Structure formats: structure tokens, C-alpha cells
Amino acid sequence: MILQQAQDLICKSRLKKSISSFLPSKRRKWKLYHNKGNLLRLAEPEKKRFQEEKFKNLLRQALNSSYYSGVLEKAGLNPDNAALEDLKKLPFLTKEIIRRQGDSLLAKSKSRLYQNASGGSTGEPIVFYQDKNYRDNVWATMMVILEMCGWYYGARIARIWGAPQDKRRFRTLRGRLIYFFQNTRFYDSFNMSEENMLKYHYDMTKHRPDIIICYASSVYLLAKLLKEKGLMPSYPSISINTSAETLLPHMRSTVTEVFGREIYDKYGSREISGIACECSAHRGLHVFEDNVILECLDPLTGEDVYEKPGELVVTDLNNLGMPFIRYRIGDMGVISRERCPCGRNTLMLKKVSGRITDNFYLKNGRIVHGEYFTHLFYGKRGIKNFRFIQNREDDFLLHIVKDTDYAEDCLKQIVCDIKKVIGENTVLKVEFKDKIPDTATGKYRFTVSKVKKGCL
Ligand SMILES: [Zn+2]
Asked: Which residues form the domain of 443?
């Protein structure tokens, strides 16, 4: 407890904040952060002008990529004269194009970019690149999102999280130092057994976080367990920030009932982070229109739709290293032009559907988040697509669609990693397919568990 108090003192100190804002690596991020709050309140004409300038800049950079220079030429678009409406002249960017075009999408030298990869609960696994401008904006947006959730400088944060790259970072000395100075504790959402969840609960009871950042289903699982056991959490003191999955109404009500705190949902992906976040009015998610142009398109006509479900298509205005223009992110949603009473002047994302990940209930009592398995495929090149299915507690099936550069060793490693989690005494069959169909909802799912225990 003394150590925690000392950590609080350091994390909340003005000195730390001053040093942080003067560090050359942080100065630009802080500036972006201070601007972002104001950008959400710009009047319509200014907002449009701001977006258009960023859009033009994105197109200018895109000319450096061999793929996009061809696309722009075909569309007859000159970046200097482009208007926001010209976006519609450009074709969609799909995961398939990213896979096929690879480096020809890059607008900057690879040495200046950060590699990232995604699978997620939907879509196909892809490798892509992001630049410093994108990363700085992600940092600044995260600060604004936290602020919208009631965060203050130095507040204690608990992360119930599982992305392996984030976990790996946490285990390094540098990562530990970063999390120490962010006053953050980490809890593994890929290992939500009853025993572990109780450990997390007791640790958080001691640590008393102000804000919990988590996957929607992880905090829901924890809330359900605490309710069953009659345990009343005394944390967090401020709010809960969920992401990565659809926060269904029954999940929201259970979590709110158990923790007695408001939930703030946010929307983004590995490819394009910081798309939208909820404010305290809870009337939908504010779209960060300084980061993205978000379209919602009628699946039949391709026309813009408001107030009714459509396909979400995102243009990232920040990643100038590998432009994502009209990216089919793989989610359906509802966009509204209704204004929020909080005064922020943005489009509202009323609903996102399709981000559903199953939890896996294993014979050994562990509950593993479905994303654990999708993460095993991150950056693995010879596999075009896959689906991991749990038929019974000890019976699993892996469907694989091979890519042209398929190598058996890569699959062996994945199977070995899966076995470590599901246990050696289980059946894991691998079947090769030409194509894996969408699920009945029309939505592709990477992981499907047929073992239900009353959750989700
Ligand atoms: Zn609002």
C-alpha cells in the first residue's frame, strides 16, 4: 500500500506532467491532445474545412504509393483540388487487397513505419504498417477518450486485457516502467478462470483502480461471477471503459448493476484505432471526425444511410505511411446526425454489430477469450483464412484456407500453441478448406464456441 501511495504521488505530480510535456517524444502528442478536445466542438463548416485539408494531405501522400497513384489516376483525382465528396470516386480498400498488394500500398519507406497485424474477431488476418503521425494521434485520442470517461492525470487504471503484443510489452523492463508511470495494473483477460477472476477481484479491491479498461465480455464475466458469489466490488471509483467487442444491453446492465459505475464504450480496431467513444450523455459514440471519415453504406445500393443499419467504411486521416482509404472494416453499424446534448458536434455511432467473440469454456475450468486464438494467427503469412471451432469442452476443429506461401511448420506451431491452452488430452482436428462461409448472421467469425455456460 505504501508503494502504491508513492506511485500515486509520482504519477499525479505536476513535475511528472511538466517533464512529460517537455520530452521531445511527447511534445507533439500533448499538443495534439490539447487540440482534439476542441476539434470535437467545431461548427459544421470549420469541421468540414479541417477534414478536407487532412483528406487532401492524405491523398498527396498516397501518390507516393504505387497502388494509390494508380487508383487516383484512374479516378482522375488531383489531391490539391480534391473535395470531401470526391472520396466516393475512390474504390474500397479490403483485407484481400491489403494481402495481395502488400508493400505497393506503402507511401513511405518501411524503415520509417511500425508493423502491425490484426485478425480480431472478424475479417481476415492481415499485416499492415502505421506511421508516427498515426501513433501520436492514437495516443492523443486515447487521452481524450479517458478524459470523456472521467479520467484525471495520474488516475489509477486497471487493464483487463489480452493482446499478446501489449502483454509482451508489459513484461519488459521498459513496459513495466511505462505502466508504472501510467499508474496501470495489468490483468490477463485470456485466462479468466474462476480462480483467476477471484484473484483479480481481490487485487483490485486492494489496489482500488479509478478506471477499468477492458474487453466488454471480460468485465461482463467478472461481473457475473461477483454477482453469483455475492461479492460487492468497491472499485472502480470512476468508470469502466470497454472496447473490442459489441457491448450488448444485458452485458451493460449486469456490469453497471454489479460495479455501480458508468460504462463508456469505444470503437476502433488494430488497423484504425480511435474511431469513436461514448460521452457521459450515453447517446451513442462520438465519431472522432478529425481522425477518420466514417461512412455507413446501404449494403444494397451503396448509398449513405443514417439512422438505419449499414456497412461501416473508414478512411483514416492520420496514417500517412500506408493509407487506409475507404477501408471495409468488417462491421455493420448505425450512424446518426442527431446532436448530443453534451455539445460535442460530431456524427454519432449509435450501434455497432458484428464484433462478437465467443468465450471458450475448457475442460480444465479455464475460460479463454476467443481473441486469444485469433492472436496466434497474427502476422502468419501462409494462412489466408481460418476459423477455430469448439464443438465440445474437449473437442475442437480448425478450418484453414491456405495461401500460396503456405508452410506446414507455421501451422504446426499454431496447433502446438493452441494445445498448450486447450490441453493435450483434447481432440483438435485440422481441416483444409477452399473457403470458409460467413455465419448465419452474415458476419464472419474467426472463433466459434458451441459450448455455452449462460454467458454471452
Ligand atoms: Zn456527447
From this structure: 359-449
* CA–centroid distance, residue 421 to ligand 1 (Å): 42
396, burial (CB in 10 Å: exposed 0-12, middle 13-18, buried 19+)? buried
> In this predicted structure, what is the pLDDT of residue 163?
65
Q: Beta strand pairing status for 184-188 and 157-161?
A: parallel
CA of 280 to the centre of ligand 1 (A): 6
CA distance 371 to 316: 24
Q: Give the position of cell 444491453.
A: 249
Q: How far does residue 113's CA lie from ligand 1's centre (Å)?
A: 34
Find where cell 453504406 sits.
Answer: 297
CATH number for 411: 3.30.300.30
Q: How far is the CA of 379 from the centre of ligand 1 (A)?
A: 37
pLDDT of residue 439: 53
Residues with Cβ within 8 Å of 80's Cβ and at least 6 positions away in sequence, in order, are: 56, 60
Ligand 1 mean position, distance from CA 349 (Å): 11
Q: What is the pLDDT of residue 192?
A: 77
In a domain, 183, yes or no: no
Of the pLDDT bands very low, low, confident and very high (cuts 50, 70, 90), residue 269 is confident
Distance 147 CA to ligand 1 centre (A): 13
CB distance 7 to 180 below 8 Å: yes
List the end-to-end C-alpha distance of the chain, in Å, as a whole number.
36
Q: Which of 359, 364, 353, 376 is nearest to 442 (CA)?
A: 353
The alpha carbon of 285 and the centre of ligand 1 are apart by a number of angstroms equal to: 8
Span from the CA of 135 to the centroid of ligand 1 (angstroms): 25
For all residues of the chain together, what is the average pLDDT? 86
Q: For residue 67, tell me if it sits in a domain.
A: no
How far is ligand 1, taken at its centre, from the CA of residue 40, in Å? 10
Q: How many folded domains does the chain comprise?
A: 1
